[in-house]
Design brief:
By secondary structure, the protein is of the alpha+beta class. Helix content is about 55%, strand content about 15%. Helix 2 (about 15-70) packs parallel to helix 4 and helix 2 packs antiparallel against helix 5 (about 160-200).
């Protein structure tokens, strides 16, 4: 039972820290005001309204009895007396009856109280209207062949302090909640900044504007995150510098080997060795590009449609089909995104005769689907092909694919942008690659 209730509350309650904290502060204030209001209406307003209404009905009953008494001769004197002392306006309408239609409001506290006090005294021989006039109540009592019409102020049966009470109980609550919103916003702003900085850093962006602020615990968390971020950046820079050194050290002996092979007399052996050296150079370049895929390129607006079209322009138009409707723009590193898509399209042309590219828009996501009509990849190898230097020696051999870093680099770039890449069997007979980037 409690588990189900907890599950429902999780769905109803807001996810943001600011709004949750606001509920924690505002809910007791609102609940307290509701309790005070209920207690006031029950113990003060209703009782005061009941007493005032009962007093008014007694005055009207006295007037009615005095009018019907034979001892009262001067009716004008009586009505003037009530007007002067009780603020009543009294009209005697001969040969009339009270209206048959009910004009009282069923759920109005004023009407309910007046109806409750009039019925025991006058039965059903009365009628009143509290709607037609703003400040007056029209009360009519059926007599013997005439109707006694009494106009009296609403203040006689409705305490005027209710509006003042509601105003004073509501206005301070609004002020308190407004002040709480200001304080909570200042307290949650550093947490929001820290979470956004962590999100940006996770995508590979540079975070230079992170400054500790807020409470001491939040400042400490921000400082520790900044230290961790600097350690990671230092490690990445050291790796890049090390790879640059390896590149320089390895390319020099490879160049010397090429020169020696060019000068040898054994041309057949030299040709085979030169091919191996070229393969080693390609492997080295691919590895360096893979390690440096998280470059310090700035994030810009990238038009996915134009990016894909510019890649396909390098191939024969009869060998690909492009389906694109909406112009999709995302935030990212333009060159890296272009490279990730280019690697997959290049693989499609390498293993198939035709490539099919579709660009479409989903909920907050730009989707690129790339298919080919080649031999495809077994499903059991879908996860393995994303591993660096992994090669499938059957249908997709080294002679076509290089050293097995294309999909690894593409996956690394796509995930650094918060996206995803999935493989599946294509309806064209080959491989289907589905890339998604968030807006």
């Amino acid at each position: 039972m409690f588990f189900g209730l907890n599950k429902i509350l999780k769905k109803i309650l807001p996810k943001s820290l600011f709004y949750r904290a606001l509920i924690i502060v505002a809910a007791p204030v609102v609940l307290l005001q509701i309790i005070i209001t209920i207690v006031f209406f029950d113990s003060v307003w209703i009782k005061a309204n009941k007493g005032m209404t009962r007093s008014l009905v007694s005055e009207v009953k006295t007037l009615f009895d005095a009018y019907r008494s034979e001892e009262t001769k001067d009716i004008n004197f009586l009505t003037n007396l009530y007007k002067r002392n009780f603020d009543f306006v009294i009209n005697i309408k001969k040969d009339e009856v009270i209206p048959e239609n009910k004009s009282d409001r069923r759920f109005s506290p004023m009407d309910r109280s007046l109806r409750r006090e009039m019925k025991p005294v006058f039965g059903n021989n009365y009628w009143f209207d509290t709607v037609t006039y703003i400040d007056l109540v029209d009360l009519r009592i059926q007599g013997d062949g005439e109707v006694i019409q009494v106009f009296f102020p609403k203040s006689k049966i409705a305490p005027s302090s209710v509006r003042i009470f509601v105003l004073w109980i509501t206005f301070p609550s609004i002020i308190l909640i407004f002040i709480a919103i200001l304080f909570l916003r200042n307290q949650t702003r550093p947490i929001v900044k820290l979470s956004k900085a962590a999100e940006r850093f996770g995508r590979g962006e540079r975070v230079d504007d992170l400054r500790p602020s807020g409470a001491s615990e939040i400042r400490k968390a921000t400082l520790e995150f900044d230290k961790m971020m600097k350690r990671i950046n230092k490690h990445l820079n050291q790796r890049s510098e090390m790879l640059s050194g390896i590149s320089h050290d390895l390319r020099t002996p490879l160049t010397r080997l090429k020169l020696q092979l060019a000068m040898t007399d054994k041309k057949d052996a030299a040709k085979k060795m030169a091919s191996d050296i070229d393969e080693m150079e390609k492997m080295l370049n691919d590895y360096l590009q893979y390690a440096k895929s998280q470059s310090e390129e700035d994030y810009v607006d990238v038009n996915i449609n134009e990016c894909v079209k510019s890649i396909l322009q390098n191939y024969d138009g009869s060998k690909y089909e492009l389906s694109s409707n909406d112009s999709l723009i995302i935030q990212g590193r333009k060159n890296l995104i272009r490279r990730s898509v280019s690697n997959i399209i290049e693989n499609g042309f390498a293993y198939g005769n035709k490539v099919f590219v579709e660009i479409k828009k989903s909920v907050g996501t730009a989707i690129i689907i790339i298919e080919d009509n080649g031999p495809g990849i077994p499903k059991k190898e879908f996860e393995n092909v994303f591993k660096p230097f992994y090669r499938i020696d059957k249908s997709r051999s080294l002679n076509k694919s290089g050293v097995g870093l294309g999909l690894s680099i593409s996956q690394d770039i796509i995930k650094s942008h918060g996206g995803n890449i999935q493989l599946d069997d294509s309806k064209r007979g080959g491989l289907e690659v589905k890339i998604s980037f968030p807006f």
